[in-house]
Amino acid sequence: MFVDFFGVAMDQIYNHIAKVTYMSNGNVKVPVVVMTAIGAGYSDAAQHSQTLYGIFAHVPGLKVVVPSNSYDAKGLMISAIRDDNPVMYFFHKGLQGLGWMPSPEEAAVEVPEEPYTIPFGQANIVREGGDITIVTASRMVYEALWAAQELDKEGINVEIIDLRTLVPLDKETILNSVAKTGRLLVVDEDYLSYGLTGEIIAVVAESALPSLKVPPRRIAVPDVPLPYSRPLEKFVLPSKDKIVKLVKEMCEDS
Fold this sequence. Notes:
Layout: H1 10-17, H2 20-23, E1 33-38, H3 53-57, E2 63-65, H4 70-82, E3 87-92, E4 124-127, E5 132-136, H5 140-152, E6 158-162, E7 165-167, H6 171-181, E8 184-191, H7 196-207, E9 217-221, H8 230-236, H9 240-252
Parallel strand pairs: 1-3, 2-3, 5-6, 5-8, 8-9
Antiparallel strand pairs: 2-7, 4-6
């Protein structure tokens, strides 16, 4: 099921599985994993292309998982299955190797046959750098990586953090990176307002504001329904080119 259709089950998700453990004083466990496909990039219009994990990250009692590659997908899924709490597992359609939606080659990494877990709340620094921190998740990790490769030619060294989970959020890794680079850009395929980008910037503003050389910036989907038109869809989605342009501006301003 696409996340766009979760509206038909929202009462069960945010009024029941998210709250039963709390309301039972911990006596009732809810070891449920709700997996869904997210993301745009293939002209499937406004009702089949959203990301929406910010909605569920906003609800206390839910854990939110957003893998970006095949290795993380397995490790995070096993952790989710073994967790006694409800876990919302969001896997981008553009990372699943579907024939009708090309997947970045970098996302298909080797996956061991034996079981393994990846702890929740442990972000992955997929690229180290000293000039700017890009915090992102899911398929946007690759847009950030491609942008970083291009920015290398300009002498700009980018550090990229793949969050892996939104709840719990690895604040420590984000804050340590920003303390090192002095610049923060958050890239997200969810909607701009009231979402992940604002939350990450708030975390840094509250705990590491003196570290910033320039104001933090963000790139996300503007607050419009995702278009069916391929050129319009491309216009609203975050991309390598948008990241490159904004990073250059941020580095020139300081």
